[in-house]
Amino acid sequence: MPTRKFADGEVVMGRWPGSVLYYEVQVTSYDDVAHLYTVKYKDGTELALKESDIRSQSSFKHRKSQSSSSSPSRRSSSRSRSRSRSPGRPAKGRRRSASQSRELKDDKKKTIQETSLALPVLVYVSSFNQKPSENNTKRYNGEPESTEKNDTSCIILEQKLKPDLEIKRVLEQYSLRSRKDDKKKEEIYSEKKTFVAVKPIEKVPTKTKELEFGGRIGTFMLIFLLPATVFYLLLMCKQDDPSLLNFPPLPALESLWDLRVFGVFLLWFFLQAMFYLLPIGKVVEGLPLSSGRKLQYRINGFYAFILTAAALGVLLYFQFELHYLYDHFMQFAVSATAFSLALSIYLYVRSLKAPEEELAPGGNSGYFIYDFFTGHELNPRISSFDLKYFCELRPGLIGWVVINLAMLLAEMRIHNLSVPSLSMILVNSFQFLYVVDGLWNEEAILTTMDITHDGFGFMLAFGDLVWVPFVYSLQAFYLVGHPTTITWPIAAAITVLNCVGYYIFRSANSQKNNFRRNPADPKLANLKFIPTATGKGLLVTGWWGFVRHPNYLGDIIMALAWSLPCGFNHVLPYFYVIYFICLLVHREARDEHHCKQKYGLAWERYCQRVPYRIFPYIY
Predict the structure, then answer these.
(1) Are 457 and 507 in the same domain?
(2) Per-residue confidence band for 561, with pLDDT thresholds at 50, 70 and 90
């Protein structure tokens, strides 16, 4: 077993991926399995490097040029040169000594080597120095145009090698590369590019060291607390007085399970799976994985929604009683919980055989309970069927709309209404718009933390299949048993509030997703950003210059609009907005931690530029 060469905490020189430049880094940890060192640059960026890419600092101090003497062809040609004096040749009688000649040669060779070494840095800098009409990374706060550096050695080299014309002259005179290589390099590092994306280093996931959600104890408790919360909320909605202090009586255990209900749930799940496998819709690539590979995803969620609506129309035409969902709502929740638990067990068992590079960055702790909850494998697939991606939008999100429709029909049947109540119409309309928007912009989910960072375990399986359809539909379920009358002016005010939240949510997400997909798009020329060492940019204009998470702000405003039609008699309908604020504040803290580790100094500058996290002037 090879022994490690560098100790934790040792300051060494690490090579930046894809270049010949070395920067001062500090060793933070070592992976005995992958034989990779995790190092931290001065700007806070953390990367995994091989031992061959790390050198001790002593090897960079007072290092003399080791280039060989002139080639034989150069020596032979020197004999045939004219004896006439060149402008740089000393006059007769003032010949340089041998030692002086050697020193001048060494100085010249050293200059050539430094020039070749600095070329990637200078090209990288020039790619960001754009024309006034293009994306300018620094003008947002009046700072001079410059790019972030990991070490002051780059600045020293640039000062030595100014001006650029002198650099070009030296390179043309002494470069040993062929013109073909120069032309190829010039095409790659053309200054016409408005954004340069540095290819990420191939990083094998290491053990998860920082545990979230309270660690092993917290995740163990959440496995029982989350289902209990769902059952409690549904039982409370059935109460005539759903006050917090009025604890509902526990139902008989045999009444919670119905094999027919479980069969209907399975039919629904596999129907959506069949729609997912249909060869309709475009196929797109996700973001690069740690290995550099990109997975393919079929975008057909909106088509699945249309097919589901057609199937429901056929059932209603043949007088199928959709309020069956309302009558057996608790049993459906229990069936969905049992299925999500079985799915989670399957996901964990199969993840034990998954390759190391396919494990989730946040679910590879080595602790069974924690990895079972957060998800051990990042993208579990059965052939081309992506289990996590399928569950994110299909069974739960589309099921949410179906449940709301069932509650609307149940209200009309129970209260003998010819048309639904205004409160029920508002709740159904607002949430229908939200679901359709998510399915129409299905491709945007590929850049979210759920897909790129979190594994697929109990947390996401339960959240997608149980929490979303049965908790998010809580307002509609509440209105069936507790009808609330609102006036048209109040309904109009609530509608305006929902539209404001939706506009913020959609426009902010569109800005972010378009910029991530193609930052060089001319349509985004008015957006300004802060460059990072990873090659990505942090937007500092538009909604993302207002608060750090404007999409969360829009989400919370919409959540409030969904609860207001239920009135103010009880706090139960407002559980969703209270929970959602807690969820998004916690997710924002997770984002903050990951971005600080990923972007380092650039993230600190972004936080100074955009001080408010979600709520402007408040938080």
Answers:
(1) no
(2) very high
Q: Which residue in this structure is represented by tokens 């006439």?
A: 84
Residue 168 counted as domain residue: no
Assess whether 396 and 493 both reside in one domain: no
Within a 10 A sphere around the Cβ of 322, how many other Cβ atoms?
Answer: 19
Task: Report how far Cα 473 is from the mean position of its chain's Cα atoms.
Answer: 27
The pTM for the full model equals 0.66
Cα(430)–Cα(435) distance, integer angstroms: 9
Please report whether residue 240 resides in a domain: yes
Adjacent-strand bridge partners of 25: 12, 41
Give the C-alpha distances (Å, rounded to integers) separating 78 from 34, 81, 105, 170. Answer: 53, 5, 15, 20
**Residue 132 is assigned to a structural domain of this protein:** no
Banded pLDDT at 15 (limits 50, 70, 90): confident
Question: Which residue is associated with the tokens 């073909």?
Answer: 180
DSSP H or E run through 29: strand 22-31
Rounded Cα distance, 195 and 519, in Å: 7
**pLDDT at residue 325 above 60?**
yes
**362 with 453, same domain?**
yes
Residue 12's Cβ-count burial label (10 Å; 0-12, 13-18, 19+) is buried
User: Strand pairing of 54-55 and 537-539?
Assistant: unpaired
3-state SS track over 276-342: HHCCCCEEEECCCCCCCCCCEEEECHHHHHHHHHHHHHHHHHCCCCCCHHHHCHHHHHHHHHHHHHH
- Which H or E element spans position 382? strand 381-382
Single out the residue of 247, 219, 218 nearest to residue 233, CA to CA: 247
Same domain, 495 and 474: no
| Residues 6+ away with beta carbon under 8 Å from 433 | 502
Beta carbons of 288 and 200 less than 8 angstroms apart: yes
- Domain shared by 414 and 493, yes or no: no
Q: Are residues 552 and 426 in the same domain?
A: no
- State pLDDT tens for residues 182-225: 444 444 444 333 344 444 444 445 677 778 888 889 999 999 99
